[in-house]
Amino acid sequence: MSLYYMTPQHKQMARRRMWEQMLESKASGQNYQVVFPVDVIAREESFTISAFLPGVSAENLNIEIIEDTVTIEGEIVVERNEEDHYLLSERPSGKFRSVITLPSAVDADKTEAELQNGVLTLQVPKSELARPRKIKISNN
Fold first, then answer.
1. I need a labelling partner for 46 at 20 to 30 A (CA). Which of 70, 86, 101, 136 fits?
2. Angle at 41 between CA 37 and CA 44, to 5 degrees
3. Quick one: which of 135, 130, 138 has its CA closest to 67?
4. CA neighbours closer than 13 Å in the CB half-sphere of residue 11
């Protein structure tokens, strides 16, 4: 059994993200059936996005980045025999999509993605314009 500590802000953000994804799937006419957990870590020069995607292969996964928005979509394919009588079937299957809006623009060309042991990890560098800079002050 795992315990997770969530602050009220985390709960509110998770709820908001869930509603946005549901409304987006309805508006686009797509039927996304699977929701997966995502962590986003902000660092000075980059963001790290980790998504828990057990059973997903790289061939069934698509990642798109436009400005400050990362879209992860794909399909979990679970082979089931139609003749079998399932007493319990909890493994998710179907299409999924998650749209993550980051607080600043990123450099899509330098983004790296790795799928290992059911965890997708994206290293997304911030755009040069979005990175913090130290400004020298001159004495006149």
1. 136
2. 165
3. 130
4. 5
List, in sequence order, every residue forming a beta bridge with 94; answer none if it has no partner: 76
Question: 90 or 95: which carries more pLDDT confidence?
Answer: 95
Of 2.60.40.790, 3.40.50.11090, 2.60.40.10, 3.40.1010.20, the CATH number of 31-78+93-129 is 2.60.40.790
Query: 19-46: per-residue pLDDT in tens?
Result: 665 565 555 555 556 778 999 999 989 9
The rounded distance, in Å, linking the Cα atoms of 43 and 39 is 13
State both tokens at 63: 């990642």
